[in-house]
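hey m, so remember when u said the tokens were messed up on ur end? i reran from scratch. heres the input so u can diff it against urs
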Amino acid sequence: MKNALAYEWLRVRSLRSTWLLLTAAAVLQFASGLYWGLKRDLGTLNAFTSSFGLVARVGALLVAAVGVCAFSLDDQHGTRATTRLVLRTPARIVAARAVVIGGLGLLGGALMVLLSAAGVLAGGGALPSEAATWGTAVAGVLLLTVLSGLVGVALGALLRHTAAAVGVLAVWALMAESVVAALLRVPLSVLPISGTAGLPAGGGGQGWLAPLVFAALAVAGLAAAHVTLMRRDA
């Protein structure tokens, strides 16, 4: 497994898109932190936690695109046979890519948190002083980016097309969950992406159900990706 991880890390880090997408996510979050840091009429709101939400969803979508590319670019560049030859089994391929993309998701989430805080300070705003606020914000962002990356890996394997997989994720993250919440009359705080993205702003209670649902979807998607790869090789 060590060799599989090394191979996958070498392949992913050599892609320019990996670093462009992670950088874009971090820069957007800095801009959001700066915007909220410049505000002086926040009332009871906190500039740092308010800087997440929609911008964090977009950042997570960019991280998910890194996960999508882990599989879709194999087909686009004709390297699927090489990957299969080196890593040998579908289980090892899926596991290696999930671990590497999960690690990049952690990196992306950490950069988003740090640059959001930097943006708030650059705008003259104040950071929260409560450890619980920081813990919830950091946990929410990291869960959002890691799970988004894993779902991206799964969709990349299932759809084998970068634009199609990213399009599905974008529609779900930015629009479909709101429609589902309205039609089924369920709170957004229990839906995977909306609920997880809402944690930094103080989502608690039911809000913690969302990451569990998101994690279950990621595991199911990766299992489906494994089955799909086995059938393609059969």
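this time it looks ok to me. The longest helix spans residues 90-122. if urs says something different then somethings off w ur setup not the seq
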